Automatic annotation (TrEMBL):
InterPro entries: Znf_C2H2_type
Signal peptide feature range: 1-26
Protein name: C2H2-type domain-containing protein
Organism per entry: Vicia faba
C2H2-type domain sequence ranges: 115-136
Composition skew (Basic and acidic residues), residue ranges: 35-50
Chain segments carrying region Disordered: 33-54
Length: 279
């Protein structure tokens, strides 16, 4: 009994120690010690790199939210029409200053991200974002109009991130500004004069994004749906079939068993009746 207790105590201590190491290794302090790099002039840490990095007045997180909205609620329609966005369109990938860095962000698993430029690994996405800001800032295109975050309001990023986004917070002036910006995006990205495909996409864009910029509450963003909704619907149908199919077969089995039992009972009654008659 004592031997079992000792083994259990050692095992518990090992688990607690392992959790402590994980906590320390995932902390920002530990990360700061990990990301020290060597250059030709000697060691160079993140603080030194930050001093040399230019100030970027564009939110990477909100730019990523805009790109996610585009990918989910616009790209499926653009691909269906086989339409190519002009570089003059602010939604074109080249007009996102973070796009090249985002494409060099490699997701390996829940606790490992890798930089596609220098192959360094990080435990969380926020750490690789910091790494890009400090170490690869020279790859950013800081030209005017390259900040996708400026389009967040026009494309309903907050509604996409928060399904409980309240319309009671609606500000008429802000709604009017966002609607104007939204309609200008529709005109520049999908000019009606360019043909039927552009005309159809122009209409889709207005329905998906622009019409919802009103405090009346009559229209909701993403009314035409997106690729996630289609995959969710297929998944729901598949799950429903998997649940109902066994129930259906069980129902058939019970009916057949009941019918078989009644047939046998009728046969017994019939035989008994024949035997009861006099010769």
């Amino acid at each position: 009994m004592k031997k079992v207790t000792v083994i259990a105590s050692i095992f518990l201590f090992s688990i607690l120690r392992f959790q402590e190491l994980l906590h320390v290794s995932s902390s920002p302090h530990f990360y700061g010690n990990q990301v020290h790099e060597e250059s030709s002039g000697g060691k160079r840490n993140l603080k030194q790199e930050q001093e040399n990095a230019p100030e970027v007045r564009c939110s990477r997180d909100r730019s990523r939210a805009v790109w996610k909205v585009i990918d989910e609620y616009l790209t499926p329609f653009v691909e269906k029409e086989n339409y190519e966005l002009s570089k003059k369109c602010r939604l074109h990938p080249e007009n996102d200053m973070f796009r090249d860095q985002e494409e060099h962000k490699i997701y390996l698993d829940r606790n490992e991200w890798r930089c596609g430029y220098c192959k360094k690994s990080f435990r969380e996405e926020k750490f690789i974002d910091l790494h890009f800001d400090k170490r690869h800032y020279n790859l950013l295109d800081l030209s005017h109009g390259k900040c996708l975050a400026d389009l967040c309001g026009a494309l309903h990023c907050d509604a996409a991130k928060n399904s409980k986004f309240s319309r009671s917070k609606c500000n008429p002036a802000a709604a009017a500004r966002n609607r104007h910006l939204c309609e200008s995006l529709a005109d520049s990205c999908f000019p009606i004069s360019e043909g039927p495909s552009a005309s159809r996409l122009h209409e889709v864009f207005l329905h998906q994004f622009c019409e919802a910029h009103s405090c009346s509450g009559k229209h909701k963003p993403f009314s035409r749906g997106g690729k996630d909704q289609g995959s969710f619907f297929r998944l729901a149908v598949g799950a429903l079939v998997l649940v109902l199919l066994p129930v259906f077969y069980l129902f058939l089995y019970l009916i057949q068993s009941d019918m078989k039992g009644r047939t046998q009972e009728l046969r017994r009654i019939s035989k008994a009746g024949w035997k009861a008659k006099p010769a």
